[in-house]
């Protein structure tokens, strides 16, 4: 029997509502600023209700840039960020699946030693090894390219460890049955292991896509070609130039557009994301 306590229920709901308001208010202000013209956004007090310039600002920001001096279309920044995030997410998942498969199902010398070497790379993120990584990328001629943006970020010890734990829960009888049916290692990998891991793959895809989308330091370091600018880099550059020529309505429109792809990924994969993080039985 669950005892109902009105006061506790009221306090819990009140705290949740206040938390939602605190989190959502900056997003609301961003949306409101994206619906007004540049002059209104320089006046005090700032508006808290939407204006009528949303679609005008949207078109101008996507295709014309934020100002006369900065004509870079934000649409291409969004495309660069999308390509980078997709390659990083899919690349990390592919490499981690194969490495976990090799560690669990193949017997070779120093197998666990290699696994722990992979796991120890968690202590060496890109920010720690950024100078030698940049030197390698530069010598390979991958500056100002999608390969340079993504390849150094593809390896993932966390995903490898997660898939290893998933594969260890697969009954040995499935492996024996596949051998009896004449299935080779890769057939077993694609027909058994990947379907069993689909919820974990979905959960990791959400996390890794947002990780790739929000990258700032690495793209800033290896790109000086304006055609390779990502949307996160673009927002930072807009904020720096805003001190001289404020165009806050278009800056906020760019920020609003930068929120949309991660939100879409989370919303459409929410069920599988939660299931992949909570599922323990296969």
Notable characteristics:
mainly alpha
Give a verbal description of the structure.
The chain has 282 residues and is mostly helical. It has 2 domains: 6-64, no CATH class; 74-278, MetI-like (MetI-like fold, Orthogonal Bundle). Helix content is 68%, strand content 0%. The longest helix is centred in the first third of the chain and has 32 residues, at 74-105. The radius of gyration is 24 Å and the shape is globular. The relative contact order is 0.15.
The CATH homologous superfamily of the largest domain is named MetI-like
Shape: globular
Helix content, binned percent? 55-70%
Q: What's the count of strands?
A: 0
For the largest beta-sheet, the strand count, sense and barrel status come to:
none
What is the fold-level CATH name, i.e. the topology of the largest domain? Answer: MetI-like fold
The whole-number mean of residue pLDDT values reads 83
> Which class best fits the helix and strand makeup?
mainly alpha
Strand content: under 5%
Low-pLDDT stretches are: none
Q: What would you say the CATH architecture of the largest domain is?
A: Orthogonal Bundle
Q: Terminal Cα separation, in Å?
A: 32 Å
At the first level of CATH, what is the class of the largest domain? Mainly Alpha
- What is the string of helix and strand elements? HHHHHHHHHHHHHH
Number of domains: 2
Q: Mind telling me the C-alpha Rg?
A: 24 Å
Q: Count helical runs.
A: 14
């Amino acid at each position: 029997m669950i005892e109902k306590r009105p006061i506790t229920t009221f306090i819990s709901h009140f705290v949740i509502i206040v938390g939602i308001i605190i989190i959502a208010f900056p997003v609301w202000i961003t949306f409101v600023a994206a619906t007004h013209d540049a002059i209104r956004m320089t006046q005090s007090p700032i508006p808290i209700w939407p204006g009528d310039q949303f679609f005008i600002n949207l078109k101008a920001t996507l295709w014309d840039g934020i100002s006369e001096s900065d004509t870079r279309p934000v649409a291409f920044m969004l495309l660069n960020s999308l390509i980078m995030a997709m390659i990083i997410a899919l690349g990390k998942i592919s490499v981690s699946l194969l490495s976990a498969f090799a560690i669990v199902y193949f017997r070779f010398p120093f197998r666990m030693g290699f696994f722990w070497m992979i796991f120890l790379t968690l202590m060496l993120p890109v920010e720690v090894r950024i100078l030698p990584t940049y030197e390698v990328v530069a010598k390979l001629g991958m500056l100002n390219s999608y390969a340079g943006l993504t390849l150094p970020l593809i390896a993932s010890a966390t995903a490898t460890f997660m898939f290893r734990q998933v594969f260890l829960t697969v009954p040995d009888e499935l492996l024996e049955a596949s051998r009896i049916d004449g299935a080779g290692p890769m057939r077993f990998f694609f027909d058994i292991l990947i379907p069993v891991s689909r919820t974990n793959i979905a959960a990791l895809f959400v996390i890794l896509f947002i990780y790739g989308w929000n990258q700032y330091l690495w793209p800033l370091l290896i790109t000086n070609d304006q055609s390779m600018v990502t949307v996160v880099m673009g927002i930072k550059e807009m904020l720096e130039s805003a001190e001289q020529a404020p165009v806050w309505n278009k800056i906020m429109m760019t920020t609003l557009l930068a929120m949309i792809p991660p939100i879409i990924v989370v919303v459409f994969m929410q069920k599988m994301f939660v299931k992949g993080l909570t599922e323990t039985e296969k």
